[in-house]
Amino acid sequence: MFSGLTTNDKRLFIGFTIAALAMPLLAWPVGANYPDLLQKFAIYGIFAIGFNILFGLTGYLSFGHAAFLGVGSYAAVWMFKGVTMNVIPAVIFGVLVAGMFSAVIGFISLRRSGIYFSILTLAFAQMSYNLAYSVLTPITNGETGLQLRQDDARVLDRLFVDRAEGLPSTNLFGLEMSGYPGFYFCCVLLIIAFFISLRIQRSPFGMMLRAIKTNQVRMNYTGFNTRPYALTAFIISGMYAGLAGSLLAVTDPLAGAERMQWTASGEVVLMTILGGAGTLIGPILGAGLIKYFENIFSSYNDIMLSESFSFLPDFLNDTLVFVIGPFVGEGWSLLLGIVFMAIVIFLPGGLMEGLTRIHAWYRRRGSGGTPTAGSASSSQAAE
Amino acid sequence: MDVILLQLLNGLDKGGAYALIALGLTIIFGTLGVVNFAHGALFMLGAFCAVSVQALLTISKKVKDESITFFDAYKEVPYLEAWWGDTGSMIIDYAVPLSIVIAIPLMLLLGLGMERGLIRYFYKRPHAEQILVTFGLAIVIQELIKAQFGANPIPTPAPEVIAGSANVGLWVGLGESVVYPWWRLIYLAFAGVIIAAAFAFLNLTTYGMVVRAGMADRETVGLLGINIQRRFTIVFGMAAVIAGLAGVMYTPILPPDYHMGMDFLVLSFVVVVVGGMGSLGGAVLAGFLLGILQSFASMNEVKSIFPGIDQIIIYLIAVVILLIRPRGLLGRKGVMET
Asked: Which of A75, A265, A325, B313 could staple A97 via S-S, CB 3.0–4.6 A?
């Protein structure tokens, strides 16, 4: 399983596993240790890892990735409705459907590259979104969103259990997928997803993808047909999105078309860029940060602000509330936009590049001071 | 026949907006080589120019309402009306046309500021980063507008004189069955004039000739001792003005809200790509073409054959065009080939 990985990679993977499993503890100091939010961290982490395989590694900027997320959600909910409330078939089905869907879209979109590719994926995603809202209402339940109902078929479940009162909940062989069990289910999948992405990055296939990003023309001239590689990357990335989508359905069995809107596609782009496109850890970091701050800031309002600054004199307090007020609560997207612009302008490599730079500066300053231990850990972090 | 004419007009109208935005996008792309995702935001800012002008003109004071005698009732009377009576209310009525005068210098300044302040640092960066930074800018502008004006559409009516409808059917000999709002006809004419003016500027003036030369070969023009960068900056400002004016004029048709920019941007980008990246004629052609096709697809007869076609027609056409004519309708060789 670990053959072909360097010691650093192994350390990185083990470190990541521990960090992921201990996430409730790590998130405790910042007040994010409740399961709903932790589930979001893990799910959007998976989504961003997948997007990173396409954008960070292969260099194709897709502006329609949320379509696969949405398709995964719908597929999973249909599995819940039709077959069983067990999550395993739902997740597998969601990933497969998203994979097939992305194969079709990828096959067409990848005939073009650069901005044309972005527009094509955007067009497909908008098409899916519009269709989900209008014509496909029998499948997607339109604006209301696809929900579980009391009288769903659930063929497999019927064989073993009688129909109970109320809506059934998603479960893993009897273990209910809400709260911490749900988080750990997502978390295990996140670790697996991370491991696969690590293996991809270190494999010859990953090298091909990097080469496509660096110079596709030269690749063609050396006699490689790049399209199958790019298509594979696209499908893998779509399956990751499908996995994330079906996990969203697992933690809350409801699928709506707004998950496919292009603003949702934009969000995953933001996550990946914020953390650092092309790095292993970056996208997960970006996803976590955006989801965390979205959760914290969007719930703030002016009164809470002035309470948290209440130790300051009145006029300072008022000024601060006046300055910060527009950026929290409803205005959280404004803050996100500004931070995002700043990142693209000053730090195109995202937060990971920032960390690398800080580290380099630190090492230059104390040259020879901190030799091996520090450099090993941070070159991992920079990956 | 009536229905077809009506849909044709509808399509031309929508196409006018698409064409104007796409024209600006193409100009920016052709001159500066920058993919501007914030162009829809400029369109929206233009629309909110009209909203602000209307809000400014209708700043009101509270006046006791004499017609109600049971209790003390107050009504809001705009200062303009209070001072100048009927002349004042007429000025308020003409808020939208008036805001054109204000929008032109404002959008020009905004465009120049945007180019000097942000875009020029991104000439040499990859297209992906240009898309991302302008995307971020679009989010910021959109959120600022939302914070200032709220999330609801703000109705901004056209002047009273032209609020009615024109009997278009009589003009073309179809009887009185085809009526169409005056303002939409004016919008159509306006779009035509702006497009013609932009083309005339680029094709008939010396200034425009130099700009076109710069689009073709920037380095050589620079070597001839022309400050091409400065001209490109001004052209960027003009593209912003075009988008802004399109927005101002569109307000009576569609009450502006904070996400109208993004809605139009996505479509306009599709239009640009269909027309051919870097081709001005292509952008205009594709804009009108897609507008017309979209309105025909929303006819009930068509919808009954292909359900949902009105929702996806534009994207569908974009996909087909990109696959069979990768450069777009009028795209030239060598522009954004990769």
From this structure: A75
